[in-house]
Amino acid sequence: MNLKQLSALLELSQTTVSRALNGYADVSEATRARVQAAAKAHDYRPNTRAQALATGRSRVIGHVIPKISTHAMVNPIFADFITGAGETYSQCGYEMLISVVDVAEEEAAYRSMKRRGLVDGLIVSAPRMNDPRIELLDGIGLPYAVHGRATGTDRPYSWLDVNNRRAFARATDFLIDLGHRRIALINGLEAMDFAHRRRQGYEEALRARALLPDAALMRQDEMTEGYGWRATREMLALPDPPTAFLVSSVICMLGVRRAVEEAGLTLGRDVSAITHDDQLSYLREDGPVPTFTATRSSVREAGQRLARMVIDRIDTPEAPHAHELLEAELIIGRSTGPAPR
Amino acid sequence: MNLKQLSALLELSQTTVSRALNGYADVSEATRARVQAAAKAHDYRPNTRAQALATGRSRVIGHVIPKISTHAMVNPIFADFITGAGETYSQCGYEMLISVVDVAEEEAAYRSMKRRGLVDGLIVSAPRMNDPRIELLDGIGLPYAVHGRATGTDRPYSWLDVNNRRAFARATDFLIDLGHRRIALINGLEAMDFAHRRRQGYEEALRARALLPDAALMRQDEMTEGYGWRATREMLALPDPPTAFLVSSVICMLGVRRAVEEAGLTLGRDVSAITHDDQLSYLREDGPVPTFTATRSSVREAGQRLARMVIDRIDTPEAPHAHELLEAELIIGRSTGPAPR
DNA sequence: GGATCACGCCAAAGCGCTTTGGACATCGCC
DNA sequence: GGCGATGTCCAAAGCGCTTTGGCGTGATCC
Q1: Are B169 and B199 in contact (CB under 8 A)?
Q2: Measured between alpha carbons, how far is B262 from A177 in angstroms, rounded to an integer?
Q3: In angstroms, how far is D3 C1' from B16 CA?
Q4: CA–C1' span, A82 to D15, in Å?
Q5: What is the C-alpha radius of gyration for chain A, rounded to an integer number of angstroms?
Q6: In this structure, is the dihedral angle defined by the CA atoms of residues B156, B162, B168 and B173, taken in order, positive or negative?
Q7: DSSP string covering A183-204, please?
Q8: B225 and A282: CB-CB below 8 Å?
């Protein structure tokens, strides 16, 4: 059933039927009701491609996943983030298009998306320091919103971010309050903006309490379980090992715990650790006290809100850029305790 | 730059330019070369929406994620699977559309996708026993391929699956060889087809060695870390606890390990465990011997191949249905050892 | 009573592509 | 020289929608 057939059936013009369904005022309420009833009865849905062609808007938002190499890690927060964004999209009548592209072809991919009229807007994920994509997308003229921020870019853009600096400063502070002095940082790759900010927060908090950051206690890498384990194991073997760890993700934290336990130590007693927790659904726990003390912020909610943000960019490009800074909660679990003496 | 402008520039008709670019024979090689050069020089990309409207094919493949409730788990294999599928799609000139829909509206979502001409085909994920989606999609007339199988459906359909039955039978057999007699199964939800098959394999292997499946040693639930921990903890507290565990996912396995260690036991010595491992990229390890003994099969590769399978369905709907049964490797790690006496 | 206006409807153009059904040369062949 | 075959190209008609501009009709106002 298409517009033509539906309007023939109703003995109305395509114009009137279209305008009736799209809420224009110059249709009498009587005919509008009649049209809506018929549309419902025949389960009429306008063809998206025709609609897009006629309006110039595709009602699709793109998410680009740059692929480093064949074996590179897929971001574990991806699934929950997508779910959040998808919820907003379906509420707002948008579709989500995901494009896996080789990192070398990322720029070409954006250009192609624009030229082919594939998407109305984009979500930019995992911004790096001085991320070139912001300038690129402004140049291309594709609305977007960034999940995170890109230190070093001076042009305005819309973003939503967790206050990573403050979260890690608070976590560090909390560990210092517990008497810890040698606090390690198991960070994500610091070319990533969020990891950079976390280190800032960590170092600031140390300095504010007259502690000197020690390069031997700082690591950065892709946040896998294996990395958490390796880093912890190595640092516990130092002559003057840390008594506490600040960890960038729960996945890493799993590795940290493994290393701590393998060393015959108990987490929360002999060694403390705080992780950032994106509330990934498949790692959720139940029970009164969480296993891990964590700075917690829902990545699914971030997806929901960021999706709304791109849609706003598309609808009102002239509006000023939006910024949302989510504060992470510091949730006390069983992985922290007073520093051993 | 659109077709009209490009053809004006070349002083050719739109027809000729279009046919030149689409490889039709009735264009001289000289003009074809000229057209291609101009298209390249101006980075011409046909508008996807117009192309789709004209051809009736959108070159988009849909993935539907049914959302149980606001807090339901997002499948952890999702990200890697999507990445694999996305790789194939970009090679074949397809786009991937992801739709998060409330489970109650799943059927309506499929219908709508078809009517709106949004997608040319679909991937069906996480089939349940007697999954109604297969009949539904056949009725709607949307090509699809299933990731897994749906026991109880007698109509033919294209699928790709891991040989879950054999994988779990082999794993069980291996544990029996090591002297284990009380082997627990920490399964996924058995309404899911894969979990059902895993239990079959497990029970068959037990019976083949004259062991009786014990309901007290079998659990099923959503495969979270917390579930693995809870199930293990409870079973270890039984009067006659299991000495080995068969676990449905690495995420669960993390919980199993936690429970084992909390009980003061050592995995691979006091208690053995084998998990199914989808080779999720963010849980990957390095090192010579893996931590976990596992039945291993790459979900990313599954994504790649299944994407190819839907594309084939779209291109040649009259071809017989394809089936691929991937065998999981049994990889020996450090989580298994001889049964303690 | 005629001008004005709002209301409700519609014909037709257009979005950017593909495809059908020729048209026009050129060529080889009898 | 005429005829069919072949090789190149093109005008125009769609694909299914939205939107512009206009057309009647009846009510309103001086």
Answers
A1: no
A2: 28
A3: 28
A4: 33
A5: 25
A6: positive
A7: EEEEE--TTBHHHHHHHHHHHH
A8: yes
Return d(Cα B321, Cα B304) in angstroms, integer. Answer: 17
- Distance from C-alpha of B90 to C-alpha of B311, rounded to nearest angstrom: 12
Distance separating alpha carbons of residues A243 and A338, to the nearest angstrom: 10
What token pair was written down for B11?
A: 């002083």
Which helix or strand (DSSP H or E) is residue B60 part of? strand B60-67
- Whether residue B288 contacts residue A226, with contact meaning beta carbons closer than 8 Å, is answered with no
Place of tokens 């199964």: B185
Do residues B92 and B311 make contact, with C-beta atoms less than 8 angstroms apart? yes
Q: What is the mean pLDDT of chain B?
A: 95
Interface with chain A: mutation pick from B81, B98, B101, B252, highest number of A CBs within 10 Å: B98
Give the pLDDT confidence of A303-327 residue by residue, as tens digits.
999 999 999 999 999 999 999 999 9
Is residue B51's pLDDT more than 90? yes
Q: A74-111: string of b/e by CB count within 10 Å (b at 16+)? A: bbbbbbbbbbbbbbbbbeeebbbbbbbbeeeebeebbb
Q: pLDDT digit string (tens) for B161-198?
A: 999 999 999 999 999 999 999 999 999 999 999 999 99
- 8 A C-beta contact, residue A89 and residue B101: no
- In strand D, which positions have an atom below 7 A from any protein CB? 7-12, 14-22
Task: Select from A147, A145, A143 the least CA-distant residue to A158.
Answer: A145
The rounded distance, in Å, linking the Cα atoms of B233 and A261 is 17
C-alpha–C-alpha distance, residues A249 and A267, integer Å: 16
| Measured distance CA(B96)–CA(A182) in Å, rounded | 48
Whether the CB-CB separation of A200 and A309 falls below 8 Å is answered with no
Res A109 pLDDT > 70: yes
End-to-end CA distance of chain B, in Å?
Answer: 77
Measuring CA to CA, which residue among B172, B202, B333 is closest to residue B268? B333
Chain B residues whose beta carbon lies within 8 Å of the beta carbon of residue A60: 97
For A51-61, the pLDDT digits (tens) are 999 999 999 99
Q: CA A58, A59, A64: angle at the middle one, nearest 5?
A: 90
H helical segments located in chain B: 3-10, 14-21, 29-41, 48-55, 78-92, 106-115, 133-140, 164-177, 193-208, 225-236, 250-262, 299-315
pTM: 0.92
With tokens 């807090």, the residue in question is B71
| Contact across the interface for B287 and A50, Cβ inside 8 Å | no
Structure tokens that stand for A175 in this block: 């560990």
Residue pair A144/A124 in contact (Cβ under 8 Å)? The answer is yes
Give the full edge-to-edge strand order of the sheet including A329-331. A218-220, A183-187, A244-247, A272-277, A293-296, A329-331
Query: CA at A7, C1' at D21: how many angstroms apart?
Result: 21
The encoded tokens of residue A214 equal: 């020690």
Tell me the pairing of strands B95-102 and B159-162.
Answer: unpaired
User: Phi and psi for A334 in degrees, rounded to 5?
Assistant: -100, 10
Label the pairing between strands B95-102 and A244-247.
unpaired
Kindly report the nearest CA distance between residue B96 and chain A, in angstroms. Answer: 6
